[in-house]
Amino acid sequence: MIGIGPAGMARLGAVVERTARTFLITGGVRSGKSTYAERLAESLGAAVSYVATGPQPSADDPEWAARVADHRARRPSDWTTIESLDLGSVLDSATGTVLIDCFGTWTTAVIDELDGWDAPTADWKPEFDDRLQAVVSAWQSCDRPIVAVSNEVGWGVVPAYRSGRIFADLLGEVNRTIAAISDQLVLMVAGRPMIVPAPAGRIDQ
């Protein structure tokens, strides 16, 4: 099994367990989750397949373009970049360590594909659930290290608009689902990683 060596542990602050193979890194905006996930993936000692789930940068959204440029600049040149929403297929076929960044943009893009922002939730939620289950199945059968990034968006007030509520609710569901099948859950707070221990009993809601 690929593990984190002593040098990697030192760079990561000895936070993660050396025997862990699958990780979910979550946190708020600009909390350092992507940077930490990249360092973690690099420390696992294998080639890295970087899975980008966000939209392509464009001149219409310079802020997003700047974020994408920042992420690309941090990535080592020998990493393989895969742009796909079909995370199940990626996990089945990618080589080395798989770094998924992130489940927040994946959730948004899947809702877009299903025309879910305006349609009744009952019309498209089963398809969303099927896509998430495909990710779960591939994640559980994958024998390579997986590092995934997600966002914490449900700690503030309930969003005033339906689209915001849909996104917050579904991403919360995605996060719970992926956390439940991850060896290690890391919460980033102001650039500092914190291990979130597994609950003693099952939590379904």
From TrEMBL:
Chemical reaction(s) catalysed: adenosylcob(III)inamide + ATP = adenosylcob(III)inamide phosphate + ADP + H(+); adenosylcob(III)inamide + GTP = adenosylcob(III)inamide phosphate + GDP + H(+); adenosylcob(III)inamide phosphate + GTP + H(+) = adenosylcob(III)inamide-GDP + diphosphate
GO terms (BP aspect): cobalamin biosynthetic process
Recorded metabolic or biological pathway in which this protein acts: Cofactor biosynthesis; adenosylcobalamin biosynthesis; adenosylcobalamin from cob(II)yrinate a,c-diamide: step 6/7; Cofactor biosynthesis; adenosylcobalamin biosynthesis; adenosylcobalamin from cob(II)yrinate a,c-diamide: step 5/7
Domain of life according to the entry: Bacteria
Pfam family, one: CobU
Molecular-function GO term, any one: cobinamide phosphate guanylyltransferase activity
InterPro entries: CobU/CobP (IPR003203), P-loop_NTPase (IPR027417)
Keywords carried by this UniProt record: ATP-binding, Cobalamin biosynthesis, GTP-binding, Kinase, Nucleotide-binding, Transferase
Binding site for GTP: 27-34, 52-54, 72-75, 83, 101
Active site: 71 (gmp-histidine intermediate)
Enzyme class: transferase
Catalytic activity, EC: 2.7.1.156, 2.7.7.62
Stated role: Catalyzes ATP-dependent phosphorylation of adenosylcobinamide and addition of GMP to adenosylcobinamide phosphate.
Family listed: Belongs to the CobU/CobP family.
Identification of the protein by name: Adenosylcobinamide kinase
Organism whose genome encodes this protein: Microlunatus endophyticus
